[in-house]
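Dig into this one:

. . .
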Amino acid sequence: MVQRMTDSGRKVRFAITVVVGNQDGFVGLGRTKGREVGPAIRTAIDVAKLDIIEVKRGCGSWECGCLTPHSLPFETEGHTGSVVVRLKPAPRGTGLAIGDIAKSVLKMAGVEDAWGFTKGHTKTTVNYSIAAFEALRMTSQMRVTDEQRERLKIVSGPVKLHVAPSIVVEESVEAEKEAKAEEAAKEEAPKEAAPAVDATTKKEEA
């Protein structure tokens, strides 16, 4: 929140920084300003979706040999203003050993284990987040050979299967389940016994 003093009083504006991602190889960062919080957040999300990058992941730590894309394939560095963020690959189980701001960016990108080293005025959260984002951007710009890609198990982009849920399919499945349940209930219900009619009563009535 930023306040500015004018002749008519204080004017309040909001600066929004948003990180979006699928936690599997894609991450984006956007920043906007506005007078209201809600529209500014929605605009920042749209800007972040337009600036999505594809992150390379791998098993670049010499201490780990799991050969799965859980960390970074090599060391990267990004800087914005006075903040410098250096990311190093870590063995499986280390987690994200870095500050909370950069941890959110790495988590959205799908990086599970990494070591982070920072310089500069990291209390400036905007520069800190942008520097971490630029460090991840360097992974997509770095060229790797086929031998390095095979040895470090480097993958670019998503590795999991993402299926978007379909509302129409879910409704049809639920309707089929309800119809089957009704049919089963009808079959289990005891059938009413038909009234027995004696032959003598039929003759009398005739």
The chain is about 35% helix and 25% strand. The beta strands are 2-6, 9-21, 26-34, 52-54, 56-57, 76-80, 83-89, 96-97, 114-119, 155-156. The longest helix spans residues 167-188.
